[in-house]
Design goal:
By secondary structure, the chain is mainly alpha-helical. It contains 8 helices and no strands. Helices cover 79% and strands 0% of the residues. Helix 4 runs antiparallel to helix 5, helix 5 runs antiparallel to helix 6 and helix 5 packs parallel to helix 7. It is globular, with a radius of gyration of 18 Å.
């Protein structure tokens, strides 16, 4: 006889499964239940992951205000948590990336730029300046720079991303 699975983990897994199947209303129910269960059991890490998941679900449904609220709450928890790197930084960069994309989608380019810059700084601190984990932030900042007609900056960011990507691919075993 095995032990029953952690209900928060089971709820998050069910939410993820429904999300991938594009059953957003079911995914939302599971993720919301995981948040509630995490709050009741004082499991902030699981709560933050569940809030992130809810943010993703709301983004997929174009419920942007709710997505922003949940992503911000998740980010706040991870930023104040004593999570050891790289786990805490992974979730911080993931939240900043999704928030940046949300703001970009809504045409809130200054906020998107800020989120992506914070994402880049967190990734640099966690992984180092030449790590491929920085490429998404560099590409996002390049996109925002282009939209805001800061073409020289956008080009420099794209070049930096390409150098990192080329360097990392040349280090992979053949």
């Amino acid at each position: 006889l095995g032990c029953a699975a952690d209900p928060r983990t089971a709820l998050n897994a069910a939410a993820e499964k429904e999300f991938k199947a594009r059953n957003y209303s079911e995914a939302e129910k599971y993720a919301a239940a995981a948040v509630k269960e995490s709050v009741q059991s004082k499991q902030e890490r699981t709560q933050a992951i569940s809030l992130f998941q809810l943010g993703e679900i709301y983004m997929a449904q174009q419920r942007y205000a709710e997505a922003e609220e949940n992503l911000q709450r998740s980010l706040e928890i991870f930023q104040r948590a004593e999570e050891p790197p790289p786990f805490g930084r992974y979730w911080t960069t993931a939240n900043l990336h999704r928030l940046g994309f949300l703001y970009e989608t809504l045409g809130r380019y200054a906020e998107a730029d800020n989120s992506y810059r914070r994402m880049l700084a967190t990734a640099e601190k966690a992984y180092g300046t030449g790590n491929p984990e920085m490429v998404p932030a560099l590409n996002a900042l390049s996109r925002i720079g282009s939209v805001q007609r800061r073409y020289n900056e956008a080009e420099a960011l794209s070049r930096r991303a390409l150098v990192i990507a080329d360097d990392s691919s040349s280090r992979e075993p053949a």
